[in-house]
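Write out this protein's structure.
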Amino acid sequence: MRPRYRFDDFTVSPARRLLVRGTEPVPLIPRYFDLLVLLLERRHQALHRREIRDAVWSDVVVSDGALSQAVRTLRRALGDDRREPSFIRTVSRHGYRFVHEPVLEEADDAPLRSAAQVRPPAADRDPFEAALAVLLAPGALREGDAEQEERRSAAEALHALGTSEAVRRLDRRPGHATARALLRDARWDVPGAGQVPLLGVPGAFASVAALAMLRFRRALRLAGSRWTAAASGGAMAGAVAGLIGGTALALARDAPAARNAPVALCVIGAVVGGVGAAGVGAGLAAAEVLARSFRSLALASFGALGGGFVGGLAHGIGRSTLGGLFGGDFSSVGGGLEGVVLGAAAGLGYALATPRPGGGMATPRGPDRVRAAIMTGLTCALAGVALTFLGGHLAGASLNFLARSFEGSELRLEPLALLLGERELGPLSRGVLAAWEGMLFGLGLVLGLTRRPG
């Protein structure tokens, strides 16, 4: 059993999940309580921000802003001063450390007080009203990250105190519609939080609109921060696929162009994979933020939208550019259909590999992350094979079509087809090539998408 900690006038009981000052409990949301316990357990060392995020927020991706807000809340609860800290000190460019001495440890299976149980909060320090004052402050959807984090902290604290009572006290106070939306959004992150109805209550339309705007803005922020990682993963996967394919082509065909194939196909693969993964990754990140229910359907749908958008855009630009420069019809180059199918497959595979009944952003680590990448890769490989039989063209088949369109081009993929017993890219070789591309695309996409910030 974890020990109980006593310092100054405070008692921290991990078994009861209580922070007590004297005889009065100090309300903390679960994650902030976990942070305090972690700082106490490892008080003899300075904890890096990454260590703290991995320990306290292991199931979600959070920014340094969320961690800073958590520390600010703990300091307020302890009556600490950031400039002259008695309890939690900021270690510049590193993290935080609990510095108060002494800290006494004792068994956590005895009553907190021998003479009396901990009293409820005093009437003049109503925790509901303190948190509601923060939640109902004007400008809830317009202020910066620090203010938003403070309001979310207040919403989570209200859920920890009692959702139904918090909803009842909102009533028709000024700003209640936006506050209700913040409560509704925060309930997914507090275990045991109750329902926050939006329909059939005063200001229902305003609450629904505020919730939609809140999630849309968060989707933009997270999609912007995660799509680069997804794009990098897709670019790496595309580069590997192109390098291996180009090397095989160089070995199978003795021609000057074939000798340059590894570098050329590596660059082409990196560009195609990076662009495709950027679109699909942005769609998946947006789905995880916006959709709390029907997560699998949302991931598949948003992945298809993101993939279809970048695929269609790339197809249109490539077709018009090549047609304008060289003439001819380049409609067989892959684009929108391929993006839709691969994006949907990636979303479905990712959803199956990272189930989250309560919605939210999955953050698998270690073997779970590898399994998620492999499952997504397999679904993308199956989608690639299906596209082949539907007449679609992924990167390899599109490249071969372009090479055949220019007389004298030596960068054709027929030598790879010969390895599979076909004289040219037929159904078998196209299917194998599409499965290979799809597999690596799914792997790279998910490994990039789930990379935790350093």
